[in-house]
Amino acid sequence: MRRSLAAACVAASLVACGLPGTGPAAGQERPALVAAAADLKFALADIAAAFTRASGTHLRITYGSSGDLARQVAQGAPFEMLLSADERYVLDLQRAGHTRGEGALYAVGRLAAFAPHGSVLSLDPDLRGLQSAVAEGRITRFAIANPQHAPYGRAAREVLERLGLWARLQPALVLGENASQAMQFAASGSCQGGIVPLSLASAPDIAKLGRFERIPAEWHGPLRQRMVLLSSAGPAASAFYEYMLHDAGAGRTLARFGFARPEGR
Amino acid sequence: MEWDAIRLSLSLAGWTLAILMPLGVVLGRWLATARFAGRHWAEGLLALPLVLPPTVLGYYLLVAMGGASSVGRWFQAATGTTLAFSFPGLVVASLLFNLPFAVQPIQRAIEAIDPDVREAAVCCGMTSWQTLLRVELPLAWPGILSAAVLTFAHTLGEFGVVLMVGGNIPGETRTVALAIYDRAQSFDAGAAGSMSLLLLVVSFVTIAVSYGLGSRLPGTRRRR
């Protein structure tokens, strides 16, 4: 029995002590820590890879809803740069003294309606198919991001309100925690469709799961996407900020994913 | 597979075990042997993480660790980083949400020891410390090992508290459970699937081992 106990203790301590070391005390220089709105998930992955190839500097990117990320910044999260889907969050953080300056607009976001293969929802530029499907009660599950803290959710709500569908769709709405979760729900096959960022719906991995249709930009308040360096930003983050602003390749990648260029920064 | 996330989860589990196991033995023994008024309140407090929604624990931890709290300010002054959204903050959270998983199996194991054995130890002139080391721990070891495996598996799997307190930062607070959530949202079914399978296997083996150990406790053996 004594020997078994010893074996158990040895096993436990091996597990306990053998592993730490990847912890925070690792000491070597860390790649820049970037917080990005979930609509950037595919576009920013491409841009970050190109940036790393060009500069040798690595980035660590956390995706989430802009509101959630801004809250974490305000609560002291160690992000060095924030790419928000809505400039309001950046300007709020600036007023609270968490940023270096007011940052810059880097893109204007667009919405898309998405329907997975086999859905009863038919898509057209004016979304008449959506209106008739809702009127006939054929939409039982419809995905958007949470309007409370996700800019694309708020824009989707404005579109649905403009079409007079917001109240009728209430029982069917499935709210994603952020834009990419809304996209996941919309493409899952369990929803008849959803209103999601064009940048996600048009990404190759997702576009093959269904059909999408651009929603006119004037149907919702503009998604003026602003980025900003945060108080703790190091040189790597500053370099990436400049790259986002000035690199022609980064601009082309954003355009390829359906983002419009902002007028005046 | 995100190996960074897997390493981070293992590291978190390692730190949690290293700190929580000695604490669990002390608390478990105290609850198993001490008789005092309001004992059920103390037991209830320790078991609370079993029933408390992770978001509630996460919310209170975020408030307690934030820059507005004295603990948060003290940590920031001492280390230069915030406790929330950091690895040490995750360890603190992990210690709290694992308390019942560590304490309860140890408490049950020590409770199962025949009081006569303990009295005999006292009659032999052994101190309380000697009794623990030479009598109680050797008899209760299946409970202690069971506590360790449960704590280990639960640390790998916890999601809500880790997301709220840690904020899903790659290499710092993104554990396997968060990486699965993230990969699923990125339509990366391959990585989400393989990491989910890993956690499924680890959890199943853990529970089976823990049940196997439970049947080796002194109390259950005597009843057979």
Q: C-alpha Rg of chain A, in Å?
A: 22 Å
Order of helices and strands of chain A: HEHEHEHEEHEHHEHEHHEEHH
CATH class categorisation of the largest domain in chain A: Alpha Beta
- Rg result of chain B: 20 Å
Task: Determine the CATH superfamily of the largest domain in chain A.
Answer: Periplasmic binding protein-like II
* Major sheet characteristics of chain A: 5 strands, mixed
Spatial separation of the terminal alpha carbons of chain B = 45 Å
Please, could you describe this protein's structure?
- The complex is a heterodimer of chains A (265) and B (224).
- Chain A is globular, with a radius of gyration of 22 Å.
- In chain A, strand 1 (32-37), helix 2 (41-55) and strand 2 (59-64) form a beta-alpha-beta unit.
- Chain A has 265 residues and is an alpha/beta fold.
- Helices cover 42% and strands 22% of the residues of chain A.
- In chain A, strands 2-1-3-10-4 form a 5-stranded mixed β-sheet.
- Chain A has 12 helices and 10 strands.
- Chain A folds into 2 domains: 31-109 and 223-256, 3-Layer(aba) Sandwich (D-Maltodextrin-Binding Protein, domain 2), CATH 3.40.190.10; 111-219, D-Maltodextrin-Binding Protein, domain 2, CATH 3.40.190.
- Chain A has helices spanning 2-18, 41-55, 66-74, 87-95, 128-135, 151-162, 166-169, 179-187, 198-201, 204-207, 235-246, 248-256; strands at residues 32-37, 59-64, 81-83, 99-109, 111-116, 142-145, 173-176, 193-197, 210-214, 223-230.
- Chain A starts with a helix and ends in a 9-residue tail after the last helix.
- Chain B is an all-alpha fold and 224 residues long.
- Chain B has a single domain (3-33, 47-215), classed as MetI-like (MetI-like fold), CATH 1.10.3720.
- Helix content of chain B is 80%, strand content 0%.
- Chain B has 11 helices and no strands.
- Chain B has helices at 3-33, 39-51, 54-65, 70-79, 87-111, 115-123, 128-157, 160-166, 176-185, 189-214, 218-223.
- Chain B is globular.
- The model of chain B has no long low-confidence stretch (mean pLDDT 90).
- The A-B interface holds A 1-2, 4-5, 8, 11-13, 15-24, 30, 33, 38, 41, 60-64, 72, 75-79, 178, 180-181, 183-184, 187, 205-206, 209 and B 4, 7-8, 10-11, 13-15, 17-18, 21, 62, 66-67, 72, 76, 81-82, 84-88, 137-139, 141, 144-145, 148, 152, 167-172, 174, 182, 184-187.
